[in-house]
Amino acid sequence: MSHSRYRQYSSHLRDKFGEKVYKLPINLIGSCPNRDGLLGTGGCIFCDEEGAGFECLSNTKSIKQQLAENKAFFKRRFGADKFIAYFQAFTNTYFPLEQFKENIAAAAQAEDLVGISISTRPDCISDEYLEALIPFARQGLDVDIELGLQTVNYHTLEYVNRGHTLAEFIDAVMRIDRKGFDVCCHIILNLPGDNIVDVVENAKVLSALNVQYVKLHSLYIVEKTKLGRQYLEGKINIISLQEYVERVVTFLEYLHPDIVIQRLVGKGPKEQQIFSNWDTSWWKIRQMIEGRMEELDTYQGKKCDYLNGKALNKFR
Ligand code: SF4
């Protein structure tokens, strides 16, 4: 864990690849079964029209072009030499299989690539799509799948209209694991309806499932979403920043120490924003979380004592 109180992604990448590695976002003209009518048309109640790809280049550019432009930027700005192609916006396995393979192949051709990261929904993972990734792994690329889950509380999943429950997530994680790829899970620790019990259970379920990465994000609210309307009508409450910091610290305490935190604090979209990060910059929130961990002299995994037959410790 180096000197940090939680396992940081940047150090993990440096240890794994021997140098700094940056993610190059790719934005495809895609959709999501929760928006195109298959499951529904409104999407998750917090989903903006960008499909969470608001930091990407335009999706009218080819995969090759987007990778080249982003790479040039990261090389110029940070002197980076190694990259991960990151299929970020929308649901990147929600294409016909041949199209999916072509997309991945187009990205895999880029030079200086060490990995491919594919963001999707738990109900858009199948054995045949995972098998299509095996040749790229054999080529030496590190493959991980990012799954939006947001919470393990299946009642909250229903409320936010995810269109899948916890079971599909568990199934996807186990299938990905059987094919030997890594899993990154997205979690929001302040969804309306979730409390500290859910926060702890999020950490415990992810640890029990042995996922490799976690990305945290606080809930942001944008205009023209169902959540935006509920918020403006005063129908939902957002917890305070102090309480959110406590939740993140508790989550980390229960999370297995091997899980790498890819993102501790997310950034909200700049456009059409109604609520995001309590009007506080993401790095300040990160400082608050790290400061609170110092104050409590706590660290990731401190309370991760519940796996492998806790009650049997009595006889050990
Ligand atoms: S799964 Fe992602 S893209 Fe689809 S509706 Fe939900 S947030 Fe939007």
Write the layout of secondary structure elements.
Elements (H helix, E strand, L loop, with lengths): L8 H9 L3 E6 L36 H16 L3 E6 L9 H12 L4 E8 L6 H5 L2 H5 L3 E9 L3 H6 L6 H13 L3 E7 L7 H13 L4 E5 L3 E2 L3 H7 L8 H14 L5 E4 L9 E3 L6 H15 L20
Parallel strand pairs: 1-2, 2-3, 3-4, 4-5, 5-6, 6-8
Antiparallel strand pairs: 7-9
Helix pairs in contact: 8-10, 10-11
The site of iron/sulfur cluster (SF4) has 12 residues, from loops.
Architecture, according to CATH?
Answer: Alpha-Beta Barrel
The end-to-end distance, rounded to whole angstroms, is 27 Å
CATH superfamily: Aldolase class I
CATH classification class: Alpha Beta
Helix amount: 25-40%
- Strand residues, percent: 15-25%
Instruction: Calculate Rg over CA atoms.
Output: 19 Å
How many domains make up the 3D coordinates?
1
Q: Main β-sheet, in a few words?
A: 7 strands, parallel
Strand order of the largest sheet: 1-2-3-4-5-6-8
Average pLDDT confidence is: 93
Provide the CATH topology.
TIM Barrel
Total helical segments = 11
| Computed structural class | alpha/beta
Molecules bound to protein: iron/sulfur cluster
Order of helices and strands: HEHEHEHHEHHEHEEHHEEH
User: How many runs of DSSP E, i.e. beta strands?
Assistant: 9
